[in-house]
Amino acid sequence: MASSTGAGDQVRAACASRRTRLLAQLPPGAVAVLHTAPEVVRNGDSHYPYRHDSHFYYLTGFTEPESALVLVAAHGDAPARSLLFCRAKNPDREIWDGFRYGPEAARAAFGFAEAYPIEDLDGVLAQLRAGAAAAPVDLLPLLADMRLLKDDSEQAIMQRAATISALAHVRAMQHARAGMHEYEIEAELLYEFRRHGAQGQAYPPIVAAGANACVLHYSANNALARDGDLVLIDAGCELDGYASDITRTWPVNGRFAASQRQLYELVLAAQSAALDAVAPGRPYAGIHAAALNVLAQGMLDLGLLDKNTCGSAADVIADKRHLQFYMHGTGHWLGLDVHDVGAYRDLGAADQPSRALQAGMVLTVEPGIYVRPAAGVPEQFWNTGIRIEDDVLVTATGHTVLSAAAPKSVADIEKLMP
């Protein structure tokens, strides 16, 4: 994120390049406006911690509220223009709220040729649109496609974010004990995020012990982790605007029970198969298919599903019987948003097939299994939820697991834990 010293040279150059690329895709003379996120009142005169709009930050590197970006595409002899609008300098408000750039300092610090007070936006827009040669343009689909491919600077930030989050998961494993509350374990994560310079969490952490791990978006984080429970933690930090997203599942007492280990090894095998499907040119949908094939066979082999009734793994998938134990996809795009923008299908093709992976894409790979009490389901597996999630960069030759510093084999987890 930007500070009072402005955007770094690399960020400033990257944002300028993105604006140039976006402007080149607009019709001649088009005028497009992109606002940052508003401040939101929490209660009374207290606001939620401010977080900029991701699209706006991607193009500007600017993090102050009450800001807007105006893009004017080239037309005839008129060159393309990028105009930043932001709050005026106000020494009195800075005493209360802290530093603000003002247009002149923002123009220099963030590499704009033009910057104006936000109060001038309507007047300047009226002038620009009076001579515009094209209708207003929807920037969002164009930005979504651009943001899917991370440049070198983005990849470096995301690697650092994933490493910080991996260290936080390690800390949680090392400090957890039976009898602790979920929120005590959560506190270890948040401490490690901030200790390493992350600005905060990318999303509310899930710290789910025992049966709570069968709730996909569990958020209470207030139950006791009892001896014999597995703890599922889905948590990642945000660093310089970019999200990480890691899930690990482990026994709070440091040792997997036999039934827990069977389910865990199944999910780990499913993730391994899914990771093998991550390579440039391969279809995005192939990641889920690879994981699902392994999980469906495992459900039959472990007796979660009856082979006599359900047939083969292919039958299980065709009849959607796996949904009883695995009801979500195997990942999502990752970037400035934890569920990042970008279509999962090739919207330009008539039949819209699964999008082909490209070097520079970053995604999560996160199979799981969630066993609730039910007739016909072996009791030793009841109330067990397991998910294993990593952040993965597609490379020119395959992929790199950005979150590899978080242990996930049974042996490595048990060795790490007290």
UniProtKB/TrEMBL annotation:
One Pfam entry name: AMP_N
SMART domains: AMP_N
Keyword vocabulary terms for this entry: Aminopeptidase, Hydrolase, Manganese, Metal-binding, Metalloprotease, Protease
SUPFAM superfamilies linked: Creatinase/aminopeptidase (SSF55920), Creatinase/prolidase N-terminal domain (SSF53092)
Keyword Endoplasmic reticulum: no
Domain of life, per lineage: Bacteria
Catalytic activity: Release of any N-terminal amino acid, including proline, that is linked to proline, even from a dipeptide or tripeptide
Cofactor(s) listed: Mn(2+)
EC id: 3.4.11.9
CDD domains: Prolidase
Domain spans labelled Aminopeptidase P N-terminal: 10-145
Enzyme class: hydrolase
Matching InterPro entries: Aminopep_P_N, Creatin/AminoP/Spt16_N, Creatinase/aminopeptidase-like, Pept_M24, Peptidase_M24B_aminopep-P_CS, X-Pro_dipept-like
Molecular functions (GO terms): aminopeptidase activity
Protein family (similarity comment): Belongs to the peptidase M24B family.
Name of the featured protein: Xaa-Pro aminopeptidase
UniProt source species: Duganella zoogloeoides
Lineage: Bacteria, Pseudomonadati, Pseudomonadota, Betaproteobacteria, Burkholderiales
